[in-house]
Automatic annotation (TrEMBL):
The chain crosses the membrane at residues 35-58, 78-96, 117-141. CDD domains: SQR_TypeA_SdhD_like. GO terms for molecular function: metal ion binding. It is found in: Membrane. It comes from the Bacteria. Keywords: Heme, Iron, Membrane, Metal-binding, Transmembrane, Transmembrane helix. It comes from Sinomonas atrocyanea. Its main location: membrane. Pfam families: Sdh_cyt. One of its GO terms (cellular component) is membrane. This is Succinate dehydrogenase.
């Protein structure tokens, strides 16, 4: 007759069934940061759903739909400060939300401290570059550029 294999206790509990001291949550600064990061993920997810569905509705349902999206459509949208702020909020929240999620995955799966450090450094650098470049594009976009010293005039550009 064979005996069933013994099931070991989880690492986080001691023999008495209580949580081992090294696994207890602390109310220190790191615990507070992780709680705020967790809360940010939930709240930013809700706001992102509203922003993204609003973006999709305006781009795909209003006017000519997907067939009307071209350079002029984007130029017309970004001529309004409302749509600049809308797209900026969507960019910033999406990048922060995604970066926070990837940061959590790195913390969970990168075992060595040096690997964890460099992965997060690359993540934060890439996120910062994308946010900075995206913000610059949104606020410095000029639909009527000067080409070879001549200001191009299209139907959506004011007469110069």
């Amino acid at each position: 007759m064979t005996t069933a294999p013994e099931i070991r206790e989880p690492r986080s509990t001691s023999v008495t069934g209580r949580i081992a001291p090294q696994y207890k949550r602390s109310g220190g600064p790191k615990g507070q940061f992780e709680m705020l990061a967790w809360l940010f993920m939930r709240l930013s997810g809700i706001v992102l759903v509203v922003l993204i569905f609003g973006h999709l509705f305006v781009n795909l349902m209003v006017g000519q739909g997907v067939h009307g999206i071209d350079f002029g459509f984007v130029a017309g949208k970004w001529a309004s400060p409302f749509w600049q702020v809308w797209d900026l909020a969507m960019l910033w929240l999406a990048m922060l939300h995604g970066s926070n999620g990837v940061r959590t995955i790195i913390n969970d799966y990168a075992e060595r401290d040096s690997v964890r450090f460099w992965l997060k450094a690359v993540l934060f650098a890439a996120s910062a570059i994308i946010v900075i470049l995206g913000t610059l594009v949104i606020f410095t976009f000029d639909p009527c550029p000067v080409v070879n010293g001549v200001r191009t005039v299209a139907d959506y550009c004011p007469a110069s």
